[in-house]
Amino acid sequence: MPTLPDFRLETYFAQWEFSARYHLTASDAQTHSLSELLALADDDGRERWESLALGYTETRGLPALREEIAATYTNASADDVLCFAGAEEAIYLAMRTLLEPTDHLVVLTPNYQAAETVPLAVCEVTGVALQADSGWALDVDAVERALRPNTRMVSVNFPNNPTGAVPTPEAWQALVQLCDDRGITLFSDEVYRGLELTRSPLPQATDLSGTVLSLNVMSKAYGLPGLRIGWIVCRDRDVLDKLERAKHYTTICNSATSEVLALIALRAREHLLDRNRRIVAENLPVFTDFFARYPDLFEFTPPDGGCVCFPRYLGADGVETMCSELVEQAGVLLLPSSIYSSALTETPTDRFRVGVGRRDPSEALAAWSDWLEKRR
């Protein structure tokens, strides 16, 4: 198989994520400390934590954890759940295991880079762009036109990273039905589900179809990326068996400590999601006011869901220069649109990703504002 290209986002973060003073492009919601998370534990969770033996764990995941994950779906049981070391392992193994060189995949753009580059290392891939001029709308007709007789999979991500877009329920149902009618596997990245603000959460794809793969993780909406616990839910047991065997060649099993902490967190999921939705809701007026002060430089639309969005930069110097000079001179980290460039579709070159899920962005925005004022 071809060598995978550099993961642009991670390469950029390797340089700046932990050295920049202000991380204003974070893709995860506000996290908890270990003590805060343990304070949310029920009696069973605390007993599991205090008596935990640090041995190997089950490849598919702690049974109690898989039960709790299944409880977040309408039509899934614990046997439909396979846990992974975060979402990236799940994406990588699903694309590498379920696709053949003679297959074809359709992916929506912009998207998390692995959703495009991993399948490109296996088979032919066609990109279908979200409609930027229509609020990053999902064009199901465009997806249908991109299908081929050998299309094996359609890969989507909603709420979308980096745009924050959430399709209408009608478009979402139409996409699931399209894939079902054509016998195509829908791979649905749902890692931001639960942080919707302007629209109700979409039905999780696996609740609508027995062949769909629904991806989720503790990292994004729950704000616990340090746990490195993700999962795929699929009611096709043969698919899960294939993925389990593939996992034997990567992580084999998950961290025992992380599984128990994820169990504690999921049992307190309403608390975690309510808190993170409040943080996003409190932050959005702050960001709206900031961008409104510079109408000659920015166009900003709040996200429909999730805790990232993709504003437009109007400055003559261009978004790449703005982002690089901002982090070098003021210590404020953003992600320029080049991080989300696609080899398959035309990608906007004047956008940048902002994270709105962390507490107290005012200091970072003040530093950004001071930097902008000095450049006028």
From TrEMBL:
Source organism of this protein record: Kribbella steppae
Keyword match Transferase: yes
Keyword field contains Ribonucleoprotein: no
Highest taxon in the source lineage: Bacteria
Name recorded for this polypeptide: Aspartate/methionine/tyrosine aminotransferase
Coiled-coil portions: none
Any one GO molecular function term: pyridoxal phosphate binding
Domain Aminotransferase class I/classII large intervals: 54-356
Keywords: Aminotransferase, Transferase
